[in-house]
Amino acid sequence: MKAPVTWIRELVDLPDGVTTDDLARRLTALGLKLEAIERPGHDLTGPLVLGRVLTAEPEPQKNGKTINWCSVDVGDANGTGEPQGIVCGAHNFGPGDLVVVVLPGAVLPGGFAIAARKTYGHVSAGMICSASELGLPDGFGGSSDGIVVLPADAGEPGDDAFGVLPLRDEVIEFEINPDRAYALSLRGVAREAALAFDAPYADPVDRPVPAADGAGHPVVVDDPDGCPVFVTRVVSGFDPTATSPAWLQRRLQLAGMRPISLAVDVSNYVMLELGQPNHCYDADTLTGAIRVRRATAGEKLTTLDGVVRSLDAADLLIADGSGPIGIAGVMGGEATEISASTSRIVVEAAHFDPVTVFRSQKRHKLGSEASKRFERGVDPLLPLVAADRVAQLLVELGGGTVEPGTTYVGEPPAAPTIVAPADLPARISGIAIDDATTVAHLEAVGCAVTEDGTTLSVVPPSWRPDLTEPFDLVEEVVRIVGYDQVPSVLPAPGAGRGLTREQRLRRRVGRTLAGAGCVEVVSFPFTGAAALDALEIPADDERRRTVALANPLSSQEPEYTTTLLPGILAAAARNVGRGAPGVALFETGTVAFATDVAAPLLGVDRRPTDAELDALLAAVPFQPQHLAVVLGGVREPAGPWGPGRDAGWADVVEVVRGLATELGATLRVENAELAPWHPGRCARLLVVGADGTETAVGHAGELHPRIVTAHGLPARTSVAELDLDALLAATPSTPRGPSFSTYPVAKEDVALVVDVSVPAADVEAALCEGAGELLESVRLFDVYTGEGIDEGRKSLAFALRFRAVDRTLGEGEAAAARDEAVALASQRTGAVQR
After folding, report:
1. For a pLDDT cut of 90, what percent of the chain falls above it?
2. Helix (DSSP H) and strand (DSSP E) numbers for the chain
3. pLDDT tens-digit map of 339-371
4. Can you give the pTM of this predicted structure?
5. Do 527 and 470 share a structural domain?
6. What beta strand segments (E) does 468-592 contain?
């Protein structure tokens, strides 16, 4: 919203010494955010006058151009009274036109000094100016790239042009929030300025208006919900050749609008002045009464922009006997627009439902200055005043008379009564605001306040539809007191509080994985059927039970994911595609599994019952936190220390083992088959509880070669995906670090031959149990098949480390513990010691 400062000062008696910067700063503090301050012509100095073109003789030049050698009457401004000779290259003017002339000695914007100089065989003493040369808006004077041609009655030759042009009139441009529609008018901005400086304010609405007797142009409103108020007045005998006076054009241009014709300019002027959109119809093109109704199927309308629009049944229309003549609150129709022969005008001002207008302009992609105001909320008491104001200006500036009679259909919606504690602004803001201050500030913004002890009953003014609840009143009071008065008080943290157990464990997870060489990534948690197909997940797999999104970002990924693998594999492929020799990534995030329970649709008029809340919660999808790890390509680069190697399935399993160890959990690994892992190279991961119960928390292993190829990953890329919530739930409440003994370790190695189908984890578990409390650690360091081992068998070599916490182990103690371990492993798994 562009507000000329001179227009604001016309409505508000601002104190002496208040500058434009002061005004902008105070209005910003009240909530009208400053966008820019425009000062057109502030760097233009010297003689700038009006001139009447006497002659304009075209002269073709050798370079192909045609210039005009002009004689211009500038009165006595040149000191001689003789016509001024000026060379001009523009061609949008002619003899008799009133133009703007800058004389020698002046300096135009940009530091362009003007002097008499010889050009094209003539001495050009000055310049006839265009809008751009003067720093005026495009289109000023009727042409975007030519000379400014002023109305014939704008002044006399030799008059100072600064009094006619919108130069040195400062303009403040505001960014108006949607809840402050009243500020999309000079009436609203001026009221805020009066509030900011406690200055006298002249409301342009405070003027006598004729009584509504129903004798104006007939109106029928079929949809009073969409159009609560509709007003018409009629002006006859209007002079269609009348042009907008210079002051009117000047104000429109300063406010950012282009002058078009007198009737249109008056309509726009009143909209800017009061904030009430209005419309002028050529009365001779109307057929019968104006009717406000909804559209019917198949109807079309050619709007003022020349576009034929197919109307929707939800569109609110202005119609007459011939059909639609406008989309209510958005744009009028071409058939009834004001033309060069219009002499009888029907002025319309109405109040429309904001939601209806908003949906219509969105549906037709037809935002307008009118819709911008209606969809935010316009004062419902304005239509009668606005229609009379338009009619008055049309008569004053275009002749004719206002026909007797005013049609007023409908009733404006009543303002709500808001009941609030008087001390609410003080309690919410923390500022010491007494009850009297609260009442005074609410009355200052136009509210009617009734006090009942410590309770206030507040009726907002008609121009503030955004005031609907007590906290809206708090905002009004606090913005006047000043947001800078809100005390800065840091909340005191409660003693002994800190991170929750889950937060501490999740941070430990991140540190552990980072220590294992993994880098964290974050992916969008959305997927589609194509991504799950690429992982070859079966149709009956639980991971196909995705949650569909009502408004997805992409039609290719319209569902919330049930697995983190699509996102992290895509990230790995991008890194490999950009030349990374290997990747080690991890990601944590929620996944969601659809439920078959339908959510009940509840009203908002009351709190749901406990049963209704239970039904709502039952319909919420299960959303566990997952962890995914991917290792692919080079795991250990080659160097002086030896040859490098690529990551394999054992690496990803070991990363998960290390994580479990860091969390204090006992992890068991067993064979499994699950897409997208390679059969035979997939492990199910189980956490063993203190009571011996086991909980499956995920899978790890090597991806199937088809999956690797489809995603463009290095061969034998391995991944793990865990239910992080389940893993953390199985973690001891107070994880402890390892205990250390200062006594020496006893080393024993064993090689056991078992059937190839026996998992190494089962053998390891038996060794741990059989070795007893002296066993400090056990590690599988070799798996061998080949010469010396029967077909269908494998040799597993384990390193056993024994240590006592209170003594050095005696001769034979470690060997005895080893033998017990081997015996139990043999009993449970059929192992034979090599």
Report:
1. 75
2. 21, 43
3. 999 999 999 999 999 999 999 999 999 999 999
4. 0.64
5. no
6. 519-520, 526-527, 547-548, 559-560, 582-590
